[in-house]
Amino acid sequence: MTLRSGIATYWRDAWGAWDRFWFTPTDPATLSAIRLFAGAMLFYTHLVWSFDLSAFFGPNGWLPLELYQADKFDSQGNMVVYHLSLLPWIGSTWLLWVLHIVALVTMFMFMIGLFTRTTAVLTALFAINYLARVMPGAFFGLDKVNCMLALYLMLGPCGSRYSVDRLIRIRRGHNTQMEPRVMANVAIRLIQLHLCCIYLYSGLGKLEGITWWTGEAIWLAIANLEYQSLDATFLGHYPWLMNLLAFATVFWELFYAFLIWPRFTRPWMLATAVGVHAFISLCMGMITFGLAMLIANLSFVSPATVRRVMDPIASRVSLAIVGEKVE
Amino acid sequence: MSPSSAGAPVGRGGADVARRPTMVIFARRIVSHWLPRLYTDPLLLNVGYGFFSPDPPLASAVIQYKVYGDDGRVLAEGTIPDAERTFPRLRYHRHKMLADQGVDTMLDERRPEYVLKGYARHLIRLHNGQRAELTEVAHEVLPLDKWLGDPPPTDLPEGQTPPPRNGMPLNDPSTFHTVRTVTQTRADVEAIEAQRKEAASTETVAPGGPPS
Q1: Is A138 close to B122, i.e. CB distance below 8 A?
Q2: Interacting residues of A248 by C-beta distance below 8 A, sequence separation 6+
Q3: CA pair distance B57, A226, nearest whole angstrom
Q4: Which of A229-243, B38-52, B152-166, B181-195 has the lowest mean pLDDT?
Q5: Residue A269 to residues A31, A140, A162, A285: CA-CA distances in angstroms?
Q6: What is the mean pLDDT of chain B?
């Protein structure tokens, strides 16, 4: 092999690997399961806004229009943050409620997979609109993950399985065989890469601090009464354990982006994700955030595994609704 | 607090364990340029993923409020956030984020007071009051050694039980510190509404930035 042909082979292989990574058709089972769970989380998140809709989104609420303008425009009136939201321009309460009910209905339809291609796009637009209005102010990690998932779900065939759309197709006698789809893979890859970025940046950010090096960070997290939902301060009697947890957290976040890809290390990374997010959910009261992160982690579970768990349930639902079991 | 190589403070004292490399500053300039932000801002792709970075908060903000009526009696009082009265937990977290805004000086040093005044005006409207008084309190996380208390003496005679450790509770009064108090009246509410009407009549976008 000459040097020239060696280089050519290298680039051909590299291009082939890139092509396989992004464009290998895949079963949309994982993407559809993410739609079901992320749709439920989006619906719940926005349903909870109903308690304080005018207070958060009205012009005279906690985050008045003046504050929104102060954050988005400079002293000359030029837009400095390119957030797009219709909500600041809705003055009347009834119109705000009409829009909110439309958003909730859309998100519910997205969750159950009804007219999914349309409701996926609308759900992403609604989620962005809501978040841009309360940012900064009342948003946190949950909203970031919600928006990320909604954005990528709308790119792929996320309603192919576990959806009302599929039941409608069965009822109409259409072919119910699911062919692997390129866009299912593209959407899953985007979620995977974005998740890797989330953990990597979070890990790198912690390196800039002090308490993640000294091990105090875990104490600061569990002894903060405004976060605490389950008392885990007994860990204070075991400083070595808190140090270990702090170092393990940073190590896991830093190396997630690398160790999640090999199939031998992937289960360990996912198991740690379950442990970390369960700890955050139970001890720090951020159940929704913890679940949203785990839904994003589902992108690393193979369609075959998802089908082993989800298909029996889906079959029972389809039997009850359309009188036919569907694999 | 020691300065980093970029001149920005790092951490809360101690050694400068993480120096920000020049490349990060360069990358930050690129992503904050208006051109990539035309894509990342509207799709909320540049929201940052710190998640307790660089350090978990050393204190939490709690806002105590009182709304007074015409005759000076208290129409409403409470705290933000209030874990006992705010359900479900997600709603509590929204209120917690509101309280944290009161201590966020990253965008502008004047911002916390400006934000709190907005909360006060909202409470006046909500309870149809004449005056609202908000006190922002920082609840510091009790250091581990204070929670544990003094270690038991090592020179106890054999067989004698060591005394219980005298650790402090996490909500010890000494962990609460008043940061600032703001007051707004019905006249302030009306002044803001008049400003808004004026801006609407001239069909201009109200200029940003907290007022002096």
Answers
A1: no
A2: A272
A3: 11
A4: B152-166
A5: 20, 24, 27, 23
A6: 83
Q: Do A229 and B89 touch (CB under 8 A)?
A: yes
CA distance B104 to chain A (A): 10
Contacts of B13 in chain A (CB under 8 A): 210
Rounded Cα distance between A327 and A183, Å, is: 21
Structure tokens at A153: 């779900």
Contact B17 A210 (CB under 8 A): yes
The 3-class secondary structure across B46-114, one letter per residue, is CCCCCCCCCCCCCEEEEEEEEEECCCCCEEEEEEECCCCCCCCHHHHHHHHHHHHHCCCCCCCCCHHHH
Please check the confidence at residue B112 and state whether its pLDDT lies above 90: no
Q: Judge contact between A84 and B37, C-beta under 8 A.
A: no
- pTM, two decimals, is 0.90
Mutation for B interface: A200, A224, A247, A281, most B CBs within 10 A: A224
Q: Identify the residue whose tokens are 């890990």.
A: A203
pLDDT digits (tens, 9 = 90+) for A294-327: 999 999 999 999 999 999 999 998 888 877 776 5
Report the gap between the CA of A325 and the closest CA in chain B (Å): 38
Instruction: Provide the residue count of chain B.
Output: 212
ipTM of the complex: 0.92
With CA atoms as reference, report the closest residue to A326 among A302, A306, A307, A299.
A307
CB atoms within 10 A of CB A280: 21
Please tell me the distance in Å from A96's CA to the nearest CA on chain B: 18
Chain A contact set for B56 (CB, 8 A):
211, 217, 220-221, 224
